[in-house]
């Protein structure tokens, strides 16, 4: 079972993510309501991936991301935030996040992004192709709900209900 740290100060969002991840019975989930609690949890036990909100009281998600990258550079971090901002998305990707998802995040989108992040953590870094295109983290900066970078998720249209 893969261990996932979920960091979000919004209790309903945190409960939703916990429910989605535990229902599929592939993940052991550790919740954290703020950045300090998350960093303490990381020091106590390693995780395979992190879902991180940005706008939190106390330690902002950007600082949490920086500290995770410093102490656990191999751990994939997915940003899940209510802020849609291209500059912020570029900044978190530059800091080492592997995806930037805007809330609300559907179950399939969350699971697909987490699976991709975990698969990427076990693979060598992706190099840019001769044409300049990349299938690495920068190409995952924003994925519309109900889709993946490769198109609509199986069983879903690109429209969401």
Compact description:
This protein has 161 residues and is an alpha/beta fold. It contains five helices and seven strands, in the order βαβαβαβαβαββ. A five-stranded parallel β-sheet has the order 2-1-3-4-5, with helices on both faces. It has a two-stranded antiparallel ribbon with strand order 6-7.
Provide structural commentary.
This protein is an alpha/beta fold and 161 residues long. Helix content is 36%, strand content 18%. It is built from 5 helices and 7 strands; from the N terminus they run E-H-E-H-E-H-E-H-E-H-E-E. It has helices at residues 11-23, 35-44, 61-71, 86-94, 107-121; strands at residues 2-7, 27-32, 49-52, 77-81, 99-102, 147-148, 151-152. It has a 5-stranded parallel beta sheet, with helices on both faces. A two-stranded antiparallel sheet has the order 6-7. Helix 1 (11-23) links the parallel strand 1 (2-7) and strand 2 (27-32). Helix 2 (35-44) runs parallel beside helix 3 (61-71). The longest helix is centred in the C-terminal third of the chain and has 15 residues, at 107-121. It is globular and about 35 Å long. Residues 124-161 have low confidence and may be disordered.
């Amino acid at each position: 079972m893969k261990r996932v740290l979920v960091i979000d100060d919004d209790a309903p969002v945190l409960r939703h993510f916990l429910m989605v991840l535990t229902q599929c019975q592939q993940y052991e989930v550790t919740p954290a309501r703020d950045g300090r609690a998350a960093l303490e949890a990381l020091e106590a036990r390693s995780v395979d991936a992190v879902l991180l909100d940005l706008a939190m009281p106390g330690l902002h998600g950007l600082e949490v991301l920086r500290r995770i990258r410093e102490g656990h550079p191999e751990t994939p971090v997915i940003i899940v935030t209510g802020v849609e901002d291209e500059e912020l998305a570029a900044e978190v990707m530059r800091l080492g996040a592997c995806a930037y998802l805007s809330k609300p995040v559907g179950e399939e989108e969350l699971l697909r992004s987490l699976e991709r992040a975990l698969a990427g953590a076990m693979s060598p870094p992706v190099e840019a192709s001769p044409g300049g295109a990349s299938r690495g983290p920068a190409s995952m900066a924003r994925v519309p709900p109900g889709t993946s970078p490769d198109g609509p998720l199986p069983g879903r249209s690109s429209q969401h209900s």
